Amino acid sequence: MPFKTFAIRNEAILPIHYLRGLSKLKGQEMGWNEIFGKGLKEVENIKERNHKIIAPPTTGVRKERMGHDFKDGVFDEMKRYAKHYGLKQADMIELFAWIYFSSEFTEREKEFFKINEWIYYVEEL
């Protein structure tokens, strides 16, 4: 599995660390591979419907660096989708995280981490 590093916004760091801790407590895998898996599946559905994705504006610099051993081909597939939609890789990674958090977190967790403030628009072309 190739190790890849990437930058993400500060708002994504806290829920990621929370997810890591939750993963250890529950004894089940919850991390970047699951985030990418769910994200890639949803983005493929968006592509099949011929829609476009508009990422939220970022304030400040993405100075938080993360790394992970991804399953083969997963990171490259994300890069292809980012190029297809004209997004930065960081925007696509954050979209994947937003999709995962929006579907897997409870309302209380979403409110605490302000997940609903990360607004992505999906529009028909």
Provide a concise account of the structure shown.
This protein is α+β, with helices and mostly antiparallel strands and 125 residues long. It contains five helices and four strands.
Q: What about the largest sheet? A: 2 strands, antiparallel
* Helix fraction by DSSP (H/I, runs of at least 4): 55-70%
Helical segment tally? 5
Overall spatial form:
globular
Total number of strands = 4
Strands side by side in the biggest sheet: 1-3
**Cα Rg:** 14 Å
Q: DSSP strand (E) fraction?
A: 15-25%
The run of helices and strands is EHHEEHHHE
| Mean pLDDT figure | 86
Low-confidence sequence ranges? none
Distance N terminus to C terminus? 36 Å
Class of secondary structure makeup:
alpha+beta
Structure, explained:
This protein is of the alpha+beta class. It has helices spanning 10-26, 32-48, 74-85, 89-104, 107-113; strands at 3-8, 51-54, 64-69, 121-124. It has a two-stranded antiparallel ribbon. Strands 2-4 form a two-stranded antiparallel ribbon. Helix 2 packs across helix 4 (89-104). The chain is globular, with a radius of gyration of 14 Å. The model has no long low-confidence stretch (mean pLDDT 86).
